[in-house]
User: Fold this.
Amino acid sequence: MIKTLFALEGIGQALKIEHGVIHMETAECLQFIDITDRIVELVEDCGIQNGIVNVQTRHTTTAIMVNENEPLLLEDMKRTLDRLAPREIEYGHNDFSIRTANMQADETKNGHSHCKALFLRTSETLNLTGGVVQLGRWQRVFLIELDGARSRSVSVTVMGNQT
Assistant:
């Protein structure tokens, strides 16, 4: 669903800002979910022809990435992230006997997920020209689940003109 946030008439063209949310269920830690087609669908629905598309995760244990959807490469990236922040080591964030901030009743030990996020981005900005998201031949947009099975959402803002 796309919602118009702002429209501004200027000299010769109108600036329009639209927003949509992509909802999904993830299945496991280090899951790479290709959301490119859903982003393209949101862009097409809003009618903006030239501008930018910002794709942002709304969670501290997920990331947004543009890369190639090639299975062996995705496995290489998973192994790299696991080497940077292994699940098996001790994290202060996981010590619920001393941690007092941002606690939930159903809290899980996910220090590794937050540390993996340190090396990744929460958003990507893509160019939009002629109504087409300007991705290269092999480029795809991914939500990366860094923790475990969860309900997740991605915020997509499209800003530009309709001519």
About this structure: The longest strand covers residues 14-25.
